[in-house]
Amino acid sequence: MPSQPRTLLVTGSSGLIGSEVSTYFSRELGYRIHGIDNNQRAVFFGAAGDTRWNQRRLEKDLPGFEHHELDIRDRAAVLALVRKLKPSAIVHTAAQPSHDRAAAIPFDDFDTNATGTLNLLEAARQACPESPFVHMSTNKVYGDAPNRIALEELPTRWDYADPAYENGIAETFTIDQSKHSLFGASKVAADVMVQEYGRYFNLPTCCLRGGCLTGPNHTGVELHGFLSYLVKCNLEGKEYRVFGYKGKQVRDNIHSLDVARFMAAFVAAPRAGEVYNLGGGKANSTSILEAFKTTEKLTGRAQKHTYVDQNRAGDHICYYSDLRKMRAHYPGWDITVSLEETIRQIVEAWKKRDRG
Ligand SMILES: NC(=O)c1ccc[n+]([C@@H]2O[C@H](COP(=O)([O-])OP(=O)(O)OC[C@H]3O[C@@H](n4cnc5c(N)ncnc54)[C@H](O)[C@@H]3O)[C@@H](O)[C@H]2O)c1
Question: How far apart are alpha carbons 239 and 221 in whole angstroms?
Fold first, then answer.
């Protein structure tokens, strides 16, 4: 008798990371995918954040993909579904993902990011404690403490002046006593809880503290997904607003495919209560000014922009991830998509996005 296919439960499956993970595990690894998403992104960000197009794409493209219209805040429904499915692995990407948006919706933010994560962890503990549990955390758990690192100002970007950070920020960096935004605080709560289910209950969990995660399936809006949104503005001839730091603020960008590849490596050889800084690293880092130039080169259109002389509260001036722990624990994994190739794919995707 043929063995049952392995099943993956993905929360936030219509989002950038959830859809990429669903596609990767289905196509490359033969998993049967169950996606949870209630299009909450459209509630958080309005029509421009609507992710139904991506849900339809998965339903069309992935054999056996099953969509569950469920809110992760609904504890009883989450428990019932996880009990019924007993998935071989869980990848949790559903979230209120915006640093800036959280202040206006503190309860929605905390209930989704912190309590929603607890609902899933407890369901996993009760129904499938052996199944790897991958949680998408964020580098905002470090609050604005990275801004205390000595910096040097270069012509188009800030960089670390302290040689201790030559390779970027490691997982040992403090998460305490700095400004996080309410989003950063709700994600800290989730991150520590995911670690705790690993340490206290020995569940195979990990937190991936993302830098800027992006790719062609990102529904970028001004408040979240800067590269995707920047490219959209470029193509539409719309003004992109730069908030402070002279446009020299630096982010490391990782293509969602490389995120999915790392998740697959963890699921294949899980550890308990681990934490990884998952970003593009120094090689895939860019400032806003540099991103304008790369995008202009790829589209042939000038980037319209204005400068607002006020940085976003708690925003990082320079952040790139130290990837050495990920590479040491999972030597088969590395970054495979360059920054320029990522931007090229985003340009192509916005040109043909089915938003119907
Ligand atoms: N994109 C980035 O740059 C970035 C950086 C660091 C960390 N992260 C983290 O990665 C994860 C995924 O980010 P993304 O960019 O794919 O976000 P996204 O907004 O594209 O996807 C999240 C999905 O979750 C869904 N969702 C939200 N609340 C829900 C709820 N209560 N119930 C069910 N579904 C719900 C949304 O509708 C959306 O489709 C998040 O945890 C985010 O904090 C993202």
Answer: 13
